Amino acid sequence: MKFPVSRDDVFGLVRPAIDAHTLGITSIAALLSDCNIRAVVADKTVREAVERLDQFNSVVLLEVWIRRHRITRLGLSYRLDPQQGETIFNRLFAQIRNCELLADQGGPLRSLYFAGLPEACRKIKRDHGSQVEVFSGDETCGETLEKLGIESSVRPTGIVEEIAYDEARLAFAREWIGKGEYLTEKPLDRSGYEGFGSEHDRLVSRLRHGARLGGLPLVRAHAGAYRPNRSEAVKLFLEWCRELAATGFLDVLSIGTSQLSQSHFGEDWNDHPNGGGVPINSTEEFRAVWQASRPMLVRTYAGTNRIPQLARMYEETINMAWHTLSFWWFCQIDGRGPLSVRENLQQHLETLRFVAQIGKPFEPNVPHHFGFRGADDVTAVVSAVLAARTAKALGVRHLILQNMLNTPKYTWGIQDLAKSRAMLSLVRELEDKQFRVFLQPRAGLDYLSPDLEKARIQLAAVSALMDDIEPQNQMSPEWVHVVSFSEGSHLADPPTIDESIKITRSSIAEYRRLKAAGQVPVLHSHPEVLRRQEEITQGARAIFRAIEKSIAQPYTAEGLYQTFAAGFLPVPFLGESLDEFHRAVQWRTKVIQGGVKIVDRTNQPIPPEERAQLTAESIQSMTQTQSMDRKLSDRILPTYRGMN
């Protein structure tokens, strides 16, 4: 028997101590809080007890916790090994029954939930049926509320209205994918401009040609064949290049090179682990890729060592379509390269000078990396603008603003629009005759479901979201980074990449048709989007003012390093270099109504203006005293490092 959720219910959320993945739990807790329903997240003692439920004392601890907090709904999260997840949940279920804690036994627990990997969810659903609701991590906010049993009558009006946008896009996507008409999408003829497909071809030329013919957006996609044998992998990738070139759907091929290609190019790899991606290791192989991919434009990842030298080599071999740099990332701080953050910034800015010199576009691969590590929405925007200002200061003329949506994947569409518009408007303030910005949105890295049919629907829905960033501009987005719908399941091959492009292009076209016909609302002046956009924009401006007042030369390698080290760019889930960047990790963030905000120790949002002032004051302690550090810590501690 199912019991409807009321505001008298208390949700208990627990994970075993061994599983550090807590973003799902904290997001559920935040969503429940938004609905004015209490959630209790298990402490370390209870987490450890759940791992040892074969011991009597652990069972007693769990029961005491449930009864002390008057928990009526219990959820377990385990996102590691599926078999182990099934074992832990079955043991938990058995002990709950033994202790007669279920409502049909006269106990307090009205519902049980499990969140884990899809395989574990399938097994638990098979074993327990309607007794347990499962979450595989690909649920929307609306789907989550429905599975939790929280009916519309219990949800605050604001939540109902805001998630209605996400539900409407999904409904559009289900119908569109269900029709199957996207499969009839044809490739566009991109020829007809000077240099097409040759070594003189340029991204800006292709964009301008596409704009004249009404053929925007252009599309890029990653591809990177992997085989344990290096030569077999390269051979297969060359076949993929020829296949993608022949079908003609892809405009820019992004080579998904291996980690060793980025960090140890041209060296003897010996027994170094490859780690996936196509293992290109010579200039001859890069030239072969360029030849096989005619007439597509081609680009690849930046290096993680000898970065300026590799950038020059890419120009000589694949006529790099544009260069992408991540500034603070892909180095020691995230385990992706040998350089320190300071060295990384120095090499990246040296590379940017080269990019400016040869007149190629630049893409900051920046804001979503802060989002991956728990940064708030304002920080994501600030990081993008810092990179853009730096690029312009060094002479770059064309900037590709990559905007990863659905990051974190619990973000609501309304918030995504607000953050996207704030980021775009602040970067576009830099535009003049010498500096042009192109928008390039994409789906989130972990957004797409392992269920391929659901993933197709999600890709269509996020394509509609892309078109709503600038709904009255038929030229926007100029560029789309198409994430293949198989991202959550397996590596995308050429047929999957082409189908993903068909989904993206056709969904945008159909969504525009429905908007023009008045069948879908145009979210140009949605009041909540405008309110949140203004909030993020003004918060970002406050951070910029504090940075420029506190850091002598903020748009230099040293200035960017000091900005991060001072704590202006919070990353509470950073896993490496914690001592060096302790001011950046000491902040706390929380998902609040579909957006991420900096909060104090009572979970109340800290206004960006206040946090900027606290950070600016604490800089004095970097060379003088620790008093400001203590003042800052008193405001935001205990340090929050969960949700990684």
How would you characterize this protein structure?
- It contains 23 helices and 15 strands.
- It folds into three domains: 10-155, Rossmann fold; 186-527, Alpha-Beta Barrel (TIM Barrel), CATH 3.20.20; 528-636, no CATH class.
- Residues 638-644 have low confidence and may be disordered.
- It starts with 9 loop residues before the first strand and ends in an 8-residue tail after the last helix.
- It is of the alpha/beta class.
- A five-stranded parallel β-sheet has the order 2-1-3-4-5, with helices on both faces.
- The chain has helices at residues 23-34, 44-51, 56-68, 82-98, 118-128, 141-148, 157-179, 203-212, 230-247, 259-263, 283-292, 307-318, 341-358, 367-372, 377-393, 413-428, 452-467, 494-516, 527-550, 557-566, 582-585, 608-619, 627-636; strands spanning 10-14, 38-41, 73-78, 111-116, 132-135, 218-223, 252-255, 297-300, 323-325, 362-364, 398-404, 436-442, 479-481, 588-592, 595-599.
